[in-house]
Amino acid sequence: MVTIYDLARKTGYSITTVSRALNNNPGVSEKTKKLIIEEANRIGYYPNSIARSLTMKKSFTLGVIFTEDLGLGMKHPFFSAVIEGFKERAEKFGFDLVFLNRYIGNEKKSYIDHAYYRGVDGVIIVCSDFDDPEVLKLIESDLPNVVLDVYSHKTNVIYSNNLYGSELVIEHLYSLGHRKIAHIAETAGSFAGKERIKGYKLALDKYGIPINESYIESGSHFSYESGYTAMKKLLSLDDIPTAVFASSDTVAVGAIKAIRDAGLSVPDDISIVGFDDIELAQHITPALTTVCQNKELMGRRAADVLINQINQKDDEYTGEYTAVVLPVELIVRESTKSIN
Predict the structure, then answer these.
(1) For 74, which DSSP code?
(2) Measured at the alpha carbon of residue 196, what is the angle toward residues 88 and 239, in degrees to the nearest 5?
(3) pLDDT value at position 54?
């Protein structure tokens, strides 16, 4: 069995440095971490979890809290990719994942109770209801945590630049000659939804397009059904929009179906733009123009931020939190076209 002593001897680094590198400690350079991890993989080093936990006073387990309003669970096309990126990154540094809920056996408990029961070192929170009292209780605890797709000054956060993404959408549609641009907005109160509708309005103002409130329809929880219903309402207007910015790709797919059911065509009659760039976006007909969020990068950065906080806590944590804003880009496909 290969031991940490063998790995230290092979790399020429001390056992302390090797241990810190394997656990993504910020005190070790990226070059050194890469060298040690590659050598560990080459010689087949697998740390004994029990011995490591006793030595370093860590469980090397990260908790995952994942809830969303559509009831899709891990089938959710956006967050499943994010969590996969988080998982891959965390595993590289020897961490396992455990999903936390509000039950231990048949007894209802809080998230924080379950986290302490499992002995996790930190928690990633993917939650559509950021104001949930139990989520807030965990965030305000001394347990390291990172929250996805929201903004908060109370904890570490990772989110995409939704405002800029909305601007890219309006800029693209404006360049194609569209001036009657509607928005199917997420109205359940999510941070991403609020930022996207804010970005939509700011971008319209930037390009001198008056805001038509009848062009803003509710997309509820980023669902297919709400996209379909909202698009039907937009089609019932006397002055139908020539383009629609959907708050998510799932909403956009619902909108496309409503347009087709009305005997119209995308993009010949109405252009559609989504947001997220889920895998389905490139495979539907027409292929969807959309704003791409780097889902895997979001997961990887979340893992880095969380593991760094865990390691800093072992030394001398400053109490400062990290906010990471990820870049976005517009992917132009077949669902938009210029108008005469």
Answers:
(1) G
(2) 135
(3) 45
